[in-house]
Specification:
The chain is of the alpha+beta class. The chain contains 9 helices and 20 strands. The protein has helices at residues 20-23, 42-52, 58-65, 87-90, 145-153, 196-200, 221-225, 231-235, 255-266, and strands spanning 2-7, 15-16, 25-32, 35-40, 78-83, 106-112, 119-121, 135-137, 156-164, 169-171, 175-179, 185-195, 239-244, 247-248, 253-254, 277-280, 294-295, 302-307, 323-338, 341-344.
Length: 348
């Protein structure tokens, strides 16, 4: 499932933001029978592809979604293709059986971002609606008569993945405790901190480091050349710890452990963007077959403890003030389909 959109030509020195195809979306959700099943956000789509996309597909993905390297200033009209990341988009065996949902509508709801937030510099003509040129492309699997009858008459249960995100949290202090209000068996927690002062300077929405202007997709030389560029500046967290019911899950670890070691152990890629942090309860979180999880519904209090001394200090002169914390969790659930209707088995 893909979104296709047409970007207008830019004039003068106007420039799109990094990965403008993702930034174009505020959120995208799938709804079955009026019930929201899953909801994704551009920050998550960017982070997930930094972690899971094979290196051989990186250049193609950058072209499809409009990374900063592929859309220079004054770029001509461009067509982008944005892959969606719902559970049935990544595994053909989990394809959504529309023939079994005769009495429930399946909807893809999309909220589009304003044109101003999709530009790093310059402005667009008044009244430009970037969402008006967007189409949704879907691949269908056609069944023969016997298969259609079986799918329509039998009940189905699918193990699916859902994304949990409780909203952006503002960090204004060095030692921050984030209460993770998640549910269900979660196989992975992913977090990133965006320095608000940096993000406001040219809309660097994919910059999760404390270095202004140093991060562009696929570039690491700028990070290495900055004097004193340590893990603290690169990852926006000096140390991190997770507490479950008041007990440490592990001793506080260096920020590099979550931005380098954990992705190396559990993912296809170690992200170029060092501000992406991971802790996986599963051995292989990218695979559909479960290999470990933490049942957050059975945990009374789960806390993510972050040491962020660069916020409001002189560690990074470009990252003073507040930061925006994004924390995502991936959980398992069961999609049950019977009698022409569908819904998830376990609600929040």
């Amino acid at each position: 499932m893909y979104l296709q959109t047409q970007l207008p030509a830019l004039s003068d020195s106007n420039k799109w933001v990094d990965y403008v195809g993702l930034r174009l979306l505020q959120d995208v959700e799938i709804e079955i029978g009026g019930q929201r099943i899953d909801k994704h956000y551009p920050q998550w789509m960017y982070i997930w592809n930094q972690l899971s996309l094979p290196l051989g597909k990186r250049h193609g993905y950058d072209l499809m979604t409009g990374s900063g390297d592929t859309l220079p200033p004054n770029s001509p009209a461009t067509t982008l293709y944005i892959p969606l990341e719902f559970w049935f988009c990544r595994n053909v065996g989990l394809s959504l059986p529309l023939i079994a949902l005769q009495y429930h509508e399946v909807k893809i709801n999309i909220d589009f971002e304003s044109a101003a937030n999709c530009l790093q510099s310059g402005t667009l003509a008044t009244g430009v609606d970037l969402g008006s040129t967007t189409s949704l492309w879907v691949d269908y699997i056609y069944l023969d008569t016997d298969e259609r009858r079986r799918f329509a008459q039998l009940s189905h249960e699918y193990l699916i993945e859902q994304l949990q995100f409780t909203g952006v949290e503002t960090i204004t202090q060095n030692n921050y405790r984030y209460k993770m209000n998640f549910n269900h068996p979660c196989k992975e927690i992913v977090w990133a901190i965006s320095c608000d002062a940096i993000n406001a300077n040219g809309n660097q929405w994919t910059n999760f480091t404390a270095l202004n202007g140093s991060w562009q997709s696929g570039q690491t030389s700028a990070l290495a050349s900055v004097p004193g560029a340590s893990n603290l500046v690169n990852t926006n967290a000096n140390t991190t710890n997770i507490q479950l019911n008041g007990q440490d899950r592990f001793n506080a670890r260096d920020g590099n452990y979550f931005s380098l070691v954990q992705p190396y152990q559990h993912h296809e890629n170690v992200p170029y963007n060092r501000g992406i942090n991971v802790y996986s309860f599963a051995l292989k979180p990218e695979e559909h077959q479960p290999s470990g999880s933490l049942n957050m519904s059975r945990i009374d209090t789960a806390v993510l403890k972050l040491d962020t001394p660069q916020l409001g200090s002189a560690v990074s002169a470009t990252c003073l003030g507040t930061g925006s914390l994004y924390v995502f969790a991936i959980n398992y659930n069961v999609l049950r389909i019977m009698s022409g209707m569908g819904g998830i088995s376990f609600s929040n």
